Amino acid sequence: MVRAIVVAVEPRFLPEYSDMLRDEYVFAYHITIENRGDQTVTLKKRYWRITDALGRVEEVKGEGVVGETPTLAPNDEFDYTSSARLHTPWGEMVGHYEFETITGERFTVAIPQFSLKADVTLQ
């Protein structure tokens, strides 16, 4: 039994949804989850720790991702895009997913830490 879940993250700043005058910065992050193992697994839960530039922490926990609990057979992948809002122009996110095998065994997979950085230039 080989468990090899690979998580890749691509964050980006969304200036069109941000209001810098009110210190509201919106970021999208695109996640790709690949099952390179030899077992079918289902993503059951997610956990995020979002930290802004002032060290304020928000924790997000819940079932699945974007309203889904995707099942990935070996060599399958699932991707989605979600967003986060900060009150500083930069911060970071880190977390983990909880998966379940078809035999009911649960395990966690780390989501690599990534930075959220607003590209703000004063005109």
From TrEMBL:
InterPro entries registered for this protein in UniProt: ApaG_domain, ApaG_sf
Signal peptide range: none
Coiled-coil ranges (or none): none
Ranges of residues in domain ApaG: 1-123
Stretches that traverse the bilayer: none
Domain of life: Bacteria
PANTHER family: F-BOX ONLY PROTEIN 3, POLYMERASE DELTA-INTERACTING PROTEIN 2
Full protein name: Co2+/Mg2+ efflux protein ApaG
Organism encoding this protein: Vitreoscilla massiliensis
